[in-house]
Amino acid sequence: MLIYLRVLKESFNFAISALKNNRLRTFLSLLGVTIGIFSIIAVLAAVDSLKKDITGSLSALDNSTVIVMRFKFGPSDIPRWKREQFPDVTYEEYQYLKKSLPDLEAISFALGVPGGTSIKYQDVTTAGVDVGAVTHEYYDIEAFELEDGRFFNEPEAVSGSGVVVLGHEIAKNLFGDSNGVGKEIRIFGRRATVIGILKKQGQSLFNNSRDGQAFVPANFARRVFGSKKGTVFPQIVLKPEEGVDNDEFVAMLEQQLRNMRSIKSGEVSNFFINQLQGFADFIDNITGQLNVIGLVISGFSLLVGGFGIANIMFVSVKERTNLIGIQKSLGAKNKFILSQFLFEAIILSVIGGMVGLLIVWLVSIVASQFTGDFEFVLSPLNVLIGTAVSAIIGLISGIVPAISASKLDPVEAIRTGM
């Protein structure tokens, strides 16, 4: 054990000596490893950060949540022309499912109203507000946190009262530091009273934070926009009771809705039941593909880096031929010489990899400063992967030079080196 620690120490000294004595050559050779590790870890960190942001955006909703609408989250086998003929889900269907569907913890009707809505308070106007038109049960489905006030109740939702719950940023733009609860604003050109302010959430990569949103009763929006297809995009959001089998729940939901729409056996359902778990799996699949593509591209950089390490080691063997001959004449075994050069190759490669990791870390810090609350993540796992990959590259690149060094004849090595 001690002899290998001694070999490791000597190899480290030789590696540092190579860096000092041949700075430019070593720098250019290690540049490939540095760029390769930087590329791989940058891809992994970017994909991990993207996945974390998407997961954070969906974290307010339980994975068991189901959304019924005429659109599908992912790809579909149904032709596009046929999907475009699907009818929107209706408020009446929401009421029907609310009464008849078993194992239901909460159900909400929601409208995707036209974006870019303006909200006005006295002489202050905030444009580009994303308004969610929902029924009162949506509060039980999504993990809302209120800073002030309350969410609208069932009578207000059913009657379509002019009440509104504002995101933190919208409230700040309209009212400044004063409390906006109880104040009257204009939304969709109509009066509405602010009854609640959401807690600050912070922005994400897709700018879908609750801070820039407002929520009104669905029936309030229905009176404004009507129910003409293409004007709004209705959806029914359902949350099954805890412990209920999701597949059985979805099957029952589909059967209930097919019965209400009088869809015959054998006919395709003219609606889609989107499960958040399925969407999460779809996101995992996409991020997995991005990882593979990035790793393949980065692999070419590592290939160049591997050739660079091999070049350094071949030169190192040539420069130390005389020393190798002396070591072998004094009794050094082949595996000792082999280990010495392998350790040196690995140490050089890891140094290049660590530089690449350092650059990724610096870039992630700088990038996070320019992307608001979106945070680039350099996880310990990615650091471990980067270090391991660089060590493996060093091992593979150094194996041939190390074998050639270990097989040198001591007499010929001393004579060649003189």
Q: How are the elements arranged and paired?
A:
Elements: H1 2-21, H2 23-58, E1 66-69, H3 80-83, H4 91-100, E2 104-112, E3 117-121, E4 124-134, H5 138-141, E5 146-149, H6 154-159, E6 163-166, H7 168-175, E7 184-187, E8 190-198, E9 213-217, H8 218-225, E10 233-240, H9 246-260, E11 272-275, H10 276-319, H11 321-329, H12 334-369, H13 380-406, H14 410-417
Helix pairs in contact: 1-2, 1-12, 2-10, 2-12, 2-13, 4-9, 10-12, 10-13, 11-14, 12-13
How much helix, percentage-wise, in residues?
A: 55-70%
Total strands: 11
In terms of DSSP E residues, the strand content is 15-25%
Q: What would you call the shape?
A: elongated
Major beta sheet, strand line-up: 3-4-9-6-8-7
Distance between the first and last residues' Cα? 33 Å
Class from helix and strand fractions = alpha+beta
Largest sheet: 6 strands, mixed, barrel
Arithmetic mean pLDDT: 80
Describe this structure as you would to a colleague.
The protein folds into 2 domains: 192 residues, no CATH class; 184 residues, no CATH class. Helix 1 packs across helix 2, helix 1 packs across helix 12 and helix 11 runs antiparallel to helix 14. Helices cover 56% and strands 16% of the residues. The protein has 418 residues and is an alpha+beta fold. It has 14 helices and 11 strands.
Features:
418 residues; alpha+beta; 2 domains; 6-stranded mixed barrel; 14 helices; 56% helix
Summary of the model, kept short:
Belongs to the ABC-4 integral membrane protein family. With 418 residues, the chain is α+β, with helices and mostly antiparallel strands. The protein has helices at residues 2-21, 23-58, 80-83, 91-100, 138-141, 154-159, 168-175, 218-225, 246-260, 276-319, 321-329, 334-369, 380-406, 410-417; strands at 66-69, 104-112, 117-121, 124-134, 146-149, 163-166, 184-187, 190-198, 213-217, 233-240, 272-275.
